[in-house]
Write a structure and sequence with these properties.
Layout: H1 2-24, E1 38-44, H2 51-59, E2 68-74, H3 81-88, E3 95-100, H4 107-117, E4 122-125, E5 131-132, H5 136-141, E6 151-153, E7 156-159, H6 163-185, E8 196-199, H7 200-205, H8 221-230, E9 235-237, E10 245-248, H9 253-264, H10 273-297, H11 303-328, H12 332-359, E11 363-364, E12 367-368
Parallel strand pairs: 1-2, 1-4, 2-3, 6-9, 7-10
Antiparallel strand pairs: 4-8, 5-10, 6-8, 11-12
C-alpha cells in the first residue's frame, strides 16, 4: 500500500501542477493583422467524404483570402479525394492547390512536401476530416506579433456521436490540456497535428522530420520537441475558443484502441526527458492501481484506505478537468459523470495500451504498421 500511496502523492501533485500551468495561459482573441500571410497545409489520404467541408470552412474565414493559400497534399488516396479538391478550386476565393505525393508515403512526407511548396512564411496545418470556425486563421495571426514566436500549438475538440465518443471528448480534452500546461511550464512535450502552426524557416532550420522519418506517427510531437531544442521558449499554446479545431471521435472501441496504440507506440523514440518520464510514470501508476485494486477486493489490503486514496485522486483530476471543461464549454455532468467512470476504467485501458504499444501493431489509413 505504501507504493501506491507514494505514486498517488505524485499523481495528485501532477494534476495540481497541470491545473496551475493551464490557468497561467492567457486567453487570446482573433485579430486581422496586416501582412501575416499563411500557407494552410492539409495532408490527406482517402478523405473524399470530408475534405470539401473543411475547404468550405476555410472559404468562410473572416480573414482576407489573398492573405492565405491552401495546399492539399494527397498521399496516394484510393478514393476520389483529389478530384473532390480539384472541383472546389473554382468555388473558393482563396488560392487552392492539390498536389500528389510521389516517391514517399506518410503524413510526415506529405507535410514536408507541403512546406517545400508553401509560398508564405507561416505554416498552419490541420487534417482533412477536421472542421474550423470562421476566425481560425485570425486567431493564429493575433499571436504572430514578433519573431520570438516560432511555433503555436492549437486546441482540438472531439465531436461525439455516441457514448464512446463522449468519453473520448473528455479524455482527449484532458490530453490537450496536458500538452498546453507542459508548454506553459517550459517543457513542451506534446501537441496535436490537427491544429498547429510554425514558421517555414524554423521547420527548415531544424531539418523538419529528419531523424524520425521512419516512425509513422509523431509528426506533431517530434517537430515540437525539435523546435523547442533549437529555439527554447519560442513555443506557445493558443488558448482561444476561436482557434478550436473539431475532429470526429472514433465510433467503436476497436477503432479507438487502434488509434491510441498508434499514438502511444512512439513513446520509446522520444528524446525529450519530460515526455518519456510522463509516459513511463502514467503506465506504472495505473498498473499499480490495477494490482492494488485486485488486492483490495481480495481483502489483502484495507479497502477503506484504498477507497480514501481514490477519492483524493478523483478530486484532483476533477478540479483539473473542470478548468479544461470551462474552456471547451463542457457540461457539469460530462465532467463528473464521465470523469468518475473514466477513473474506474481508464487505468486498465492505459495498461493495455502500454503493452500493445510495445508488442502490438496498428493500421492507419489502410496501411499496416
Amino acid at each position: 500500500m505504501i507504493v501506491f500511496l507514494l505514486l498517488s502523492v505524485v499523481y495528485v501533485s501532477v494534476f495540481v501542477w497541470l491545473t496551475y500551468h493551464w490557468s497561467r495561459i492567457p486567453h487570446s482573441r482573433s485579430i486581422d493583422l496586416e501582412g501575416v500571410r499563411f500557407s494552410v497545409l492539409i495532408p490527406v489520404r482517402n478523405e473524399s467524404k470530408n475534405i470539401c467541408n473543411l475547404l468550405r470552412d476555410l472559404n468562410s474565414q473572416q480573414y482576407a483570402p489573398q492573405d492565405f493559400e491552401v495546399i492539399v497534399i494527397d498521399d496516394d488516396s484510393s478514393d476520389s479525394t483529389k478530384e473532390a479538391v480539384e472541383e472546389m478550386i473554382g468555388e473558393v476565393a482563396y488560392k487552392l492547390e492539390c498536389i500528389q505525393l510521389s516517391g514517399k508515403s506518410g503524413k510526415k512526407a506529405a507535410l514536408t512536401e507541403g512546406v517545400a511548396r508553401a509560398s508564405n512564411e507561416i505554416i498552419l496545418a490541420t487534417d482533412g476530416d477536421c472542421r474550423v470556425g470562421p476566425n481560425w486563421i485570425g486567431a493564429f495571426a493575433a499571436r504572430y506579433h514578433s519573431e520570438k514566436i516560432s511555433m503555436i500549438a492549437g486546441p482540438v475538440r472531439m465531436l461525439d456521436s455516441n457514448l464512446i465518443g463522449k468519453f473520448q471528448k473528455l479524455e482527449f480534452a484532458s490530453l490537450i490540456g496536458f500538452g498546453a500546461a507542459a508548454i506553459s511550464s517550459g517543457n513542451p512535450s506534446t501537441c496535436n497535428g490537427a491544429n498547429m502552426s510554425y514558421r517555414k524557416k524554423v521547420f527548415e532550420e531544424v531539418n523538419g522530420y529528419e531523424g524520425n522519418e521512419g516512425i509513422p506517427s509523431g509528426d506533431d510531437e517530434f517537430l515540437l520537441q525539435k523546435i523547442n531544442a533549437g529555439r527554447p521558449g519560442q513555443i506557445i499554446f493558443l488558448k482561444s475558443r476561436e482557434a478550436i479545431v473539431a475532429t470526429p471521435a472514433k465510433e467503436t472501441v476497436s477503432e479507438l484502441f487502434n488509434q491510441r496504440v498508434r499514438w502511444t507506440s512512439k513513446w520509446q523514440f522520444h528524446k525529450n526527458w519530460f515526455a518519456r518520464f510522463s509516459t513511463v510514470y502514467v503506465f506504472t501508476d495505473y498498473l499499480t492501481y490495477i494490482i492494488f485494486l485486485a488486492l483490495a477486493l481480495a481483502s489483502f489490503v484495507d479497502l477503506r484506505v484504498f477507497v480514501g486514496i481514490l477519492v483524493v485522486r478523483f478530486l484532483s483530476v476533477t478540479i483539473y478537468q473542470f478548468s479544461i471543461a470551462r474552456f471547451f464549454r463542457f457540461s457539469f455532468s460530462t465532467v463528473v459523470g464521465l470523469g468518475l467512470t473514466l477513473q474506474i476504467i481508464y487505468p486498465l485501458f492505459v495498461a493495455l495500451l502500454g503493452i500493445a504499444s510495445i508488442f502490438g501493431s496498428y493500421s492507419w489509413k489502410g496501411r499496416k504498421y
